[in-house]
Design goal:
rod-shaped; 2 strands
């Protein structure tokens, strides 16, 4: 009784890549039912690469989609850290400004709109955090797609 091969095992991949000279990407795109006969016959990879008719169209599209996504993500490794920094700056500046305004409006003792930190108005620092955070976020979002 013959069994149909529905997947290429790790051992099959190892033989195809290490012993028969196929590239990992070619093995990932190969039709699974062909792997056992290629291995048993010892068919080395042709110099021009694996024949197109050995490729499974479904595996080709999913493999290339994943590779494309990985290449796109590796193209901008700082995208998410920059978005995180922009979110923290924007959130810090906005929340501090809102808290200061609420304190002043409820006559909280010691709260003032003219309060300064090292000679710089606190609301100015808060506004700068909001502006810089928003600018970093917008720039990162637009340029690192």
């Amino acid at each position: 009784v013959a069994t149909a091969v529905t997947m290429i095992t790790l051992e099959m991949k190892r033989i195809l890549v290490e012993e028969l000279g196929y590239k990992r990407r070619e093995v990932d795109m190969m039709r699974p039912e062909l792997a056992p006969s290629i291995i048993s016959k010892g068919l080395r990879c042709p110099a021009e690469g694996m024949p197109e008719e050995w490729s499974d169209p479904a595996r080709v599209s999913s493999s290339s989609t994943m590779v494309d996504r990985l290449e796109q993500e590796s193209q901008y490794p700082l995208k998410f850290p920059l978005l995180g920094i922009s979110l923290v700056l924007f959130g810090k500046g906005l929340s501090d400004a809102i808290i200061t305004l609420i304190k002043v409006n409820i006559d909280f003792p010691g709260a003032s709109l003219t309060e300064q930190f090292m000679g710089v108005p606190v609301l100015g620092i808060d506004a700068m955090c909001v502006i810089v955070g928003a600018a970093i976020g917008v720039w990162t979002w637009k340029t690192m797609r």
